[in-house]
Amino acid sequence: MTATALLRGRALTKVYGSVTALADADFEVMPGEVRALIGSNGAGKSTLIKLLTGATPATAGTVEVDNQLVETGDPLEMIRRGVACIYQHSNLAPAMTVLDNIFLGRQPTRRFGFVDTKRQRREAQALLQRHGIELDLDAVVATLPTVKQKEVEIMKALALNARVLLMDEPTGWLASADVARLHATIRALKTRGVGIVYISHMLDEIFAVCDTMTVMRDGRVIAESSVADMTRPRLVQLMVGDKLARDSANATLVARRPRGTGEVRLSARDLTRRGAFRDISFDLHAGEILCITGLIGSKRTELLHAIFGSDPFDSGTLKVNGRRVVFRSPAQAMAASVGFVTEDRHREGLMLGLSVTENLVMTTIARFSHMALLDRAGIVAASRRSIADLNIQPPRGDTAVRQLSGGNQQKVLLGKWLNLGPRVLLLDEPTVGVDVGAKAEIYGILRAERDKGAAVLVVSSDLEEVMTIADRIAVMVAGRLQKIHDADRTSMAEIVREIGAAAA
Ligand SMILES: Nc1ncnc2c1ncn2[C@@H]1O[C@H](COP(=O)(O)OP(=O)(O)OP(=O)(O)O)[C@@H](O)[C@H]1O
Ligand SMILES: [Mg+2]
């Protein structure tokens, strides 16, 4: 007899207005199975997850848990039946302790409604032990590194007796060592019969941790396979189609620009911010892409914020186009033609309630206003151009950004800054959540900006990305910048060693 699927969707369809986000999708996950859900940005992965968690009702189709039909659109019922979800953006209460978070919303009470913390602690400790996870129950969540926060989320799901864990891009901002940790946790859960659905754009991760895969394109399930029977090129081709697969393979062959091709656009000397980074010195030239890589927490993001004026620095000097500057606000940096694509698109980068067009022209609105009149035609034309250049899906300027898939939101954020035509462009993890095809497109766009003479500074933890786009590479370790390498004269192995030596 074959095992019963823990969770199954049949002919699931979701229509939003004129958009069919999901069409006729069949999906199931068995006990102890780690199933990858793969597909380009906007393919319908998150939508499928939302139907399976009850976050939104299906337009058509059914959901079953243990062969029993469940009403769609009822999240509490799905939790009761053991289906839990972990998103890229954590749903934890950051100011509360690990213990409180694990039991948030369902405190085991003694009589008279008092919370029985002793019992909670015992339960939590038993859970940690059973799953081989080490967590300080009294730590405040906000003080934990991201990977630990993910573990808290997993614990929280397990405390609810989850038998199916749905993970929507859980590793978006994790360093590679932390990804390995998360994978170890997943393997442990698997041996206990938990069924796992794993969404990621990182193909390495899929091949490392998953048993089976469901591939989606344009809202449909287009293939199912065991991981063992799938090759990378075949997978890329399934996801993005023939032409793009060729483009992304070719993208790695583009020539690099050796150092010093242009004048110095941005120069930092001994830039220091107490408690963050120290004595940072480098020159960024017109016509080059300089990548700063390193471990999460090495203060690269803090450095970018200090350059951009969204955070102060304590000492050192900064010059843009040869003139000494201290930006007291991002507006001043923008006036000096410095752009910053931030890492946290939800909090800092985008206005989710506004349309794609409004977000795209936000940085350049002054160009379209003449004596209190708005040049609407100009705005629409600029927006159309960005949508086409970045292949934003759906290709409509009036869609609210909230309604775009994660990867397409990232493209809007990029488009917003590219419209400014900055002479210095700072980017923090620019392709997190972006699919393989779109990554290649974005690399092409960054190279085009470089070739037009922009000075591009990219912070990235994705070494493959760094090796692909960088003209020069520097590693940041605990707030200090190591030596800057010409990309042509170094190797991934050397960079990994530099990062690793620092950690030891
Ligand atoms: N609330 C909504 N209203 C309208 N359209 C939506 C809504 N949510 C999603 N969509 C659309 O449904 C489609 C599928 O989106 P979904 O978020 O499922 O993609 P995804 O596969 O998760 O992509 P990504 O890899 O970028 O996260 C997209 O075209 C998206 O714009
Ligand atoms: Mg998604």
Q: What does this entry show, briefly?
A:
This protein is of the alpha/beta class.
Features:
single chain; alpha/beta; 504 residues; Rossmann fold; binds magnesium ion; 22 strands; 2 domains; six-stranded mixed sheet; binds adenosine-5'-triphosphate; 18 helices
What is the rounded Rg? 24 Å
Oligomer: single chain
Structural class: alpha/beta
Unreliable sequence segments: none
Q: The biggest beta sheet, please?
A: 6 strands, mixed
Count the DSSP helices: 18
CATH class of the largest domain equals: Alpha Beta
Mean pLDDT across the residues is 87
Note the overall shape.
Answer: globular
Q: Give the strand order of the largest sheet, numbering strands 1, 2, ... along the chain.
A: 6-7-8-3-9-10
As for the number of domains, it is 2
Measured between the Cα atoms of the first and last residue, the distance is 51 Å
The CATH homologous superfamily of the largest domain is named P-loop containing nucleotide triphosphate hydrolases
Give me the CATH fold name of the largest domain. Rossmann fold
Q: Report the bound ligands by name, code or SMILES.
A: adenosine-5'-triphosphate, magnesium ion
Strand residues, percent: 25-35%
**What percentage of residues falls in helices of 4 or more residues?**
25-40%
Q: Give me the count of strands.
A: 22
- The CATH architecture of the largest domain would be 3-Layer(aba) Sandwich
